């Protein structure tokens, strides 16, 4: 655990040192759970958004994208249920004066029991070696079964409390499970209270009763209220999807995990409108499709897992999370929800406008059902960035810091490096910059010894270093060095474009 904490600190420090992420308002001592993206962070973040947008909008004929305003009519949040039900259960520890989410305390308790199961498995794996059959072990080993039973009963009790909005029951669970405050170590808990996560503000100069606006806590509602506009103007036929990338705001109670939980963050959401009765089929489809997207980035599958929800939100009839193994354990990265026709029906009811679709094949009108895929840009950033950061010891005993980002997402695709700052090499390197800069983000660097320049590029995740040496002036070939393997090869300048194109092709 201590190691993981140290590693996480390294991630935060590296992000700052190299211009990926800065604390917001730093010279004023920062603003809690708000962050600014620096020069390299912005490139990486834009590339993540583009990678998602392409896979959703460009690769699907039946998905289009919009960009709706952050401010929306206040009734929208009544209709969506956010005014009444977008709450987190919070609890305070009287001794440390720290505030927690009651559900997170319980989730963390479950994670500790899951750790025990993992430890049993690791022990058994050691004992049985190749003959170890995990499936058989977890379904027969008495200790594992006991742990699993504990988890199941906690989950069942938790789901019951949440579904019944039984806050006293939640507190009792925390007491019964013996959960202590990680800071004070005591069980001196207050009652559990509900806390609405929306930020409110006022519009216009005259304050009235009904002029409270909310900063949107999700981008989805901007899609629902534009359902008919897009369907009609785009002549869209069900099934079809509407995608959106944009800011969302939540007044999170506990926000201590860097960009994992922010008060201002960005979402990439897609609402897929389907015929009633086909939604669970489409739910399964998108569940698989979204995991494939994650895996296409080349990160090993063992870092991802599904977590099906026991407690369904008021609008859903099926829901799952794709969780990622962050430096602090498996946590939600993306949600896939079957939202029924809840949103469109409610907006119909609250606006008085009919939000239906005429299906010419069935010759009938209906309110489409919706499958939502919702992923945080910042959480994706953290997942990819923390997974990529490595400290490596090389064969010669020296070490290097490596940021092995998926090449398609890297801020700079290549660095152009004249071996020395004389003999016409900088001029030749500049020619190569001019040749490639319209298609690729490049960095030119002529300062320091070549080894140090390689290290700088390794630390910011540049997949290729293109070095211009004296031979280049004769044969028009350059040395291309690969970031992860450090292997080098000679490539003709007039082939560089094709070469980079090949290497940087997005996976599908
Ligand atoms: P959590 O349970 O972690 O609070 P959630 O279930 O409330 O998340 P959703 O409402 O499903 O999250 O939002 C969809 C996605 O938006 C999440 O999977 C996550 O990637 C991202 N997200 C949600 N809240 C935040 C936040 N405070 N900071 C950064 N990203 C967030």
Please supply descriptive tags for the structure shown above.
binds adenosine-5'-triphosphate; Rossmann fold; about 40% helix; 5-stranded mixed β-sheet; 7-stranded mixed β-sheet; 3 domains; BirA Bifunctional Protein, domain 2; 17 helices; alpha+beta; about 500 residues
Q: What can be said about this structure in brief?
A:
The chain is of the alpha+beta class and 508 residues long. The chain folds into 3 domains: 1-70 and 219-250 and 260-395, BirA Bifunctional Protein, domain 2 (2-Layer Sandwich); 97-193, no CATH class; 412-503, Rossmann fold, CATH 3.40.50.
CATH class of the largest domain: Alpha Beta
- Give the strand tally: 23
Instruction: Supply the number of helical segments.
Output: 17
Class inferred from helices and paired strands? alpha+beta
Number of domains: 3
Shape: globular
- Bound small molecules, which ones? adenosine-5'-triphosphate
């Amino acid at each position: 655990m201590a190691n993981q904490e140290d590693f996480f600190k390294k991630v935060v420090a590296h992000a700052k040192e190299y211009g990926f992420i800065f604390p917001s308002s730093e010279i004023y001592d920062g603003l809690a759970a708000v962050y600014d993206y620096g020069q390299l962070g912005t490139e990486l973040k834009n590339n993540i958004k583009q990678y998602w947008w392409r896979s959703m909008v460009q690769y699907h004929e039946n998905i289009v994208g919009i960009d709706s305003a952050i401010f929306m009519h206040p009734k929208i949040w009544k209709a969506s249920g956010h005014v009444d039900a977008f709450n987190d259960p919070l609890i305070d520890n009287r001794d440390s004066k720290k505030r927690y989410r009651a559900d997170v305390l319980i989730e963390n308790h479950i994670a500790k029991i899951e750790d025990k199961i993992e430890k049993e498995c690791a022990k058994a794996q050691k004992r049985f070696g190749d003959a170890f059959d995990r499936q058989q072990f977890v379904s027969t080993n008495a200790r594992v079964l006991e742990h699993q039973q504990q988890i199941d009963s906690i989950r069942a009790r938790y789901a019951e409390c949440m579904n019944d909005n039984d806050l006293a029951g939640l507190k009792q669970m925390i007491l019964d499970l013996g959960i202590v405050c990680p800071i004070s170590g005591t069980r001196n808990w207050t009652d559990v209270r509900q806390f609405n996560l929306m930020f409110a503000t006022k519009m216009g100069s005259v304050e009235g009763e009904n002029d409270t606006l909310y900063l949107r806590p999700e981008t989805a509602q901007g899609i629902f209220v534009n359902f008919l506009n897009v369907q009609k103007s785009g002549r869209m036929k069900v099934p079809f999807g509407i995608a959106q990338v944009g800011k969302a705001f939540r007044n999170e109670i506990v926000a201590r995990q860097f960009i994992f939980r922010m008060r201002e963050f960005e979402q990439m959401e897609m609402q897929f409108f389907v015929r009633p009765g086909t939604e669970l089929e489409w739910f399964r489809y998108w569940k698989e499709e979204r995991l494939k997207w994650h895996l296409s980035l080349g990160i090993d599958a063992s870092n991802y897992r599904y977590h099906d929800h026991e407690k369904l939100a008021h609008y859903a009839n099926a829901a799952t999370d794709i969780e990622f193994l962050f430096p602090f354990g498996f946590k939600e990265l993306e949600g896939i929800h079957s939202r029924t026709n809840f949103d469109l029906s409610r907006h119909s009811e609250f606006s008085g406008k009919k939000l239906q679709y005429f299906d010419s094949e069935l010759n009938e009108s209906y309110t489409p059902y919706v499958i939502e895929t919702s992923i945080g840009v910042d959480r994706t950033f953290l997942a990819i960035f923390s997974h990529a950061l490595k400290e490596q010891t090389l064969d010669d005993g020296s070490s290097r810091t490596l940021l092995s980002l998926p090449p398609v997402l890297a801020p700079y695709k290549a660095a152009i490096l004249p071996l020395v700052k004389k003999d016409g090499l900088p001029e030749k390197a500049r020619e190569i910059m001019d040749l490639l800069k319209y298609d690729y983000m490049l960095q030119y660097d002529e300062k320091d010894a070549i080894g140090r320049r390689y290290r700088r590029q390794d630390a910011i995740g540049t997949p290729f270093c293109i070095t211009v040496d004296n031979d280049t002036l004769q044969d028009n070939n350059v040395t291309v060095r690969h970031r992860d393997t450090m292997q080098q090869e000679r490539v003709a300048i007039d082939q560089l474009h094709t070469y980079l194109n090949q290497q940087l092709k997005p996976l599908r």
